[in-house]
Design a protein that fits this description.
Layout (H helix, E strand, L loop, with lengths): L1 E5 L2 H22 L4 E5 L6 H12 L8 E5 L1 E3 L10 H8 L11 E2 L8 H15 L4 E5 L20 E4 L2 H7 L13 E4 L2 H5 L4 E5 L5 H9 L17 E6 L8 H10 L1
Parallel strand pairs: 1-10, 2-3, 2-6, 3-5, 6-9, 9-10
Antiparallel strand pairs: 4-8, 7-8
Helix pairs in contact: 1-2
């Protein structure tokens, strides 16, 4: 595992965007096969998406041969709802880049058969060739995607019941009312993410510091699902100083020195 530590969220976000762009360009230079990219939502990746948009508009990278799959979507929330992840992704990324609409994949939280929707999503990822890179965030309790504490580290895309803590945290997008946050979501599993050839996870702010410490220095455990990244051959966490604040001094020094 690598931990990239920058002074600010903006600096770490820009680093992540440029890293993703470099990987897209590197694959485009050696093959015509699409670059398969996993994407996340929430406030954490917005600055990374802003930088990717800037790079696309500057001609530094193109998404014309990128196939993307989003991590998750709420169950029962209309697609057109401003807080649906369909709406989020179009607002903050897809409406501003050159990725073809046919290449965009987001789980359907209103599918008549949610289990079948999840199974089909896994099959679509496999058919696309698997993830070249998965961009994720981490929750305050150490969860990745909506894989709440005690999710199996071998889990796949499925229906998940959200914890009260997650609904409380996400209530800031729903008039600060946890009751308005859907109680369930569809989410890729821990194993779905860890199957990616590379995983880049963003962690910003002091509220993520305990989760980051548990994921990096703690044991591999279903209590902190991000800790599975310890077992990944190409896992990276990009964070700001605030999120790195609970790491041991020697851990912090190690990551800064080896970068």
């Amino acid at each position: 595992m690598k931990v990239i530590i920058r002074n600010t969220m903006k600096e770490a976000s820009v680093w992540a965007a440029r890293y993703i762009a470099e990987k897209i360009n590197a694959k485009a230079a050696r093959t015509s096969e699409p670059f398969v990219l996993g994407l996340c939502t929430g406030s954490t990746p917005i600055e990374t998406y802003n930088e990717l948009i800037r790079l696309v508009k500057a001609g530094s990278v193109s998404f014309k041969n990128v196939v993307s799959f989003n991590m998750d979507e709420y169950v029962g929330l209309p697609v057109e709802h401003p807080e649906s992840y369909h709406s989020f992704m179009h607002k903050y990324l897809f409406d501003h880049i050159d990725e073809p609409a046919a290449n965009i994949h987001i789980l359907d939280g209103n599918a008549p058969d949610l289990a079948a929707e999840c199974a089909a999503y896994e099959q679509a990822i496999e058919k696309a060739g698997g993830f070249d890179l998965f961009l994720g965030g981490v929750g305050e309790d150490g969860h990745i995607a909506f894989n709440e504490p005690f999710s199996s580290l071998q889990s796949r895309t499925r229906v998940i019941s959200l914890t009260p803590q997650t609904r409380e945290v996400n209530s800031r997008f729903f008039d600060n009312d946890p009751a308005k946050v859907p109680a369930q979501a569809l989410s890729v599993g821990v194993a779905t993410v860890m199957d990616a050839r590379e995983v880049v996870v963003l962690a910003f702010g002091s509220k993520k510091a305990n989760a980051l410490r548990a994921a990096v220095e703690g044991p591999v455990s279903h209590y902190c699902t991000l800790s599975a990244l310890q077992m990944h051959p190409a896992g990276i966490i990009a964070c700001d100083d605030a999120a790195a604040g609970e790491l041991r001094v020697n851990s912090y020094r190690y990551f800064k020195a080896t970068e």
